[in-house]
Amino acid sequence: MSWLLFVLSNYLIVAAAVSPWLKLPSLGNIGFTLVYVLFALFHCVAMAGVRRTALFFSISAAVSYLMEEVGVRTGFIYGAYHYSDLLGPKLGHVPLLIPLAWFMMIYPSWMVARVLVKGVDPRTVRGFTAEAMVAAWVMTAWDLVMDPGMSAAGNWIWEHGGAYFGVPRRNYLGWLLTTFLVYWIAGWMWRKVEHKRTSSRIFEALPVYAYAIFAARYAMGNRIPALQVVALFCMGTPALVALIRLGATWNEPADAGAALCE
């Protein structure tokens, strides 16, 4: 199932990328998010088990929703903003789709970070804290590329604009904080959970490939053309380094070198 969802989600990325020139069947923002979330969930179950996946998803959904709700109500965390009706029904001031969208990005960003910090022990406070810091940075790099275009499309509105393509700089500090909290809490709760491993190195690396494909898609075309350069360096750098590290360990036995499971 993970393979099918991976192929479908990346078809949808391509369909969105070529939409100015070629109209391919698509599912829109809501459908794409749901497909990608399912891919993340199925892959996480295969890699970490049902219990760990349930913990991860619950922490991600709860923290992201609460931070968003407080953020919309107060303007303190991310800056003053509100959601339009384009993303579907809301719970309070936040569309129900938003916590799912956070997980859609949180999972592959975490997998990229796990490759980048391979060698640290996630069972120790120092280890999972380092992992959380890198993962938060990797995911916030994604938002540097994604947020301006999504807000320009009217999915949410920055009430006073901002210095970065209409987005306030505070937003990115809020993203670093939110994602760090998700990763750190999950790391603390998982520190004694036994890890699963698979025999397929390609399967293990699917979320890393997905992050890299997103980076390439944004670098080749964006609603705001200047963001192509941002995508190339901000998303492209961690994606490239992660792919190089995976390639360097490709011939190691899966049980000895499973960077995504350590």
Summarize the topology:
Layout lengths: L1 H17 L9 H21 L1 H25 L6 E3 L6 E2 L2 E2 L1 H20 L8 H28 L3 E3 L11 H21 L10 H4 L1 H15 L6 H22 L5 H4 L5
Helix pairs in contact: 1-2, 1-8, 2-3, 2-4, 3-4, 3-6, 4-5, 4-8, 4-9, 5-6, 5-9, 8-9
Please tell me about this protein's structure.
With 262 residues, the protein is mostly helical. It has one domain. It has ten helices and four strands, in the order αααβββααβααααα. It has helices at residues 2-18, 28-48, 50-74, 97-116, 125-152, 170-190, 201-204, 206-220, 227-248, 254-257, and strands spanning 81-83, 90-91, 94-95, 156-158. The strands form two sheets. The protein has a two-stranded antiparallel ribbon. Strand 2 and strand 3 form a beta hairpin. Helix 2 (28-48) crosses helix 3 (50-74), helix 4 crosses helix 8 and helix 5 (125-152) runs antiparallel to helix 6. The radius of gyration is 18 Å and the shape is globular.
